[in-house]
Amino acid sequence: MGKLADQYNETEIYILEDGWDDSVFGIAALSATREEIEDIDQAALHTHAAFERLLRLELLQLGDLLRADEAAAQGIDPEGYDMVFVPWPGGIEGMSTRLHELLTEPDAESRCGFWAVTTPEGKRIGDALLEEKGR
Known about the structure:
By secondary structure, the chain is an alpha+beta fold. About 50% of the residues lie in helices and about 15% in strands. Helix 2 crosses helix 3 and helix 3 packs antiparallel against helix 5 (about 90-100).
């Protein structure tokens, strides 16, 4: 049986490892992808594809990171945190639709200006990936 890391590309691994204990910023994943893909527009497409695949596998949720006052204004209890992750509405399909809408933004960083958090299964896989690497 192959390693768990063989099931994911480098960008997906970065996302799962970075999101395993907190949130991962799309632009950070874009920066990691740029180490492999020099063209920023191609890197943005690759980054989007990685988030889309992990979303479809139900390993993460996509949304925005709001300041506590912004969250409270939307009726969301920040539970004492300074920042609150708020998933985009509409479940997987709604998140996928919003992700595709961002592809129309004029620059690569705007296209990747979103946040993700792993689901419990995504966290489990992120933990296992880190363990495989001996971290």
